[in-house]
Amino acid sequence: MSINAMPTRKSFAAFALFVAGVIAGPSSWGADQHPPLTRPDGKAADMTKPVKVFILLGQSNMFGMGDVGPPEKNGTLEHLTKTEKKFPHLVDDAGLWTTRSDVRYVQVMQKGAGMVLLNNDWLTVKGRTIGPELQFGHVMGQVLEEPVLVLKSCIGNRSLGWDLLPPGSERFTFEGKTYAGYKDDTPSWVEGEPKKAVPWYAGKQYDDDVANAKKVLADIGTYYPGSRQGEVAGFVWWQGHKDQNPAHASRYEQNLVSLIKHLREDFKVPDAPFVMATIAFDGWKLAEPGLTIANAQLAVGDSKKHPEFAGTVKTVEARDFWRDADVSPKNQGYHYNRNAWTYLEVGQALGWAMAELLKK
Prior knowledge:
The protein has 360 residues and is of the alpha/beta class. It has ten helices and twelve strands. A seven-stranded mixed beta sheet has the order 4-3-6-1-10-11-12, with helices on both faces. The chain is globular. The two termini are 15 Å apart. The model is unreliable at 1-9 and 11-32 (pLDDT under 50).
């Protein structure tokens, strides 16, 4: 069933809230404005329909650095859900983590010359950390009738200006240095001086992450039991930390536009929705060159600045979701102090942004 049709299995009340939110203006949804997420009902999805696959890309914060425990520490998932009683849809009456039987969560990563499978299970809480996939998957499971596969293909410490550089990207000059184009094996150099090649190339991580996602799609039944067909329904992006140098930040908007176009081309989904969250280190105190990156992300999601993406690309502002170290598990700013609340709120905002684009 498309998202425009009436629900047959999902809660009518939840669906009505979703539709009402769209009519009222979902672009203004905030943490307390979107329809509430409800506990999973334990039922499987309608397997007569193709699996809706959402591909999540980025670096370490997309990989997932929100601490699950211990419960006595502020900002952990256990403290948020079991002590503060927030996000009640994540915990059942027995105090155990709930599971969505209609949403599959698969996480893959490149290691050496091959793909490593890190997770292949129904959406629940497991392990020591979470990323935005948890709340994103809950939103998708609640608003879609179709089976959902949340496919995360990424690794930490990767930049859009080098590791994830899209195919076809050209070299550019910044403050006297030439910076790599796609497939170059030297990050930057001064013309006329010897290059210092590295055992890597510009765009290798893009190539690896895309190839691994395609492997999952080609064997959909292994990753979503009982399914025979999967289709890419959208892309989710959260990245930017490693691009916080003046050269890469200056090209971020251009590279991001190219990334969206090449992902759609590589997966043969020319109008697939693309949602992203801004980087948000230090919240509204975010400084340069990070500020340039956040502004680039907002610009690409602005239909007035990029009319070619009108109705298919949306950026959510994440700086409201920053939490200081004194209310977080650790003082680790580049991982948002490992505060699970940040990862939950970012994932939820991305989920409702995707729901809005699917509705359109």
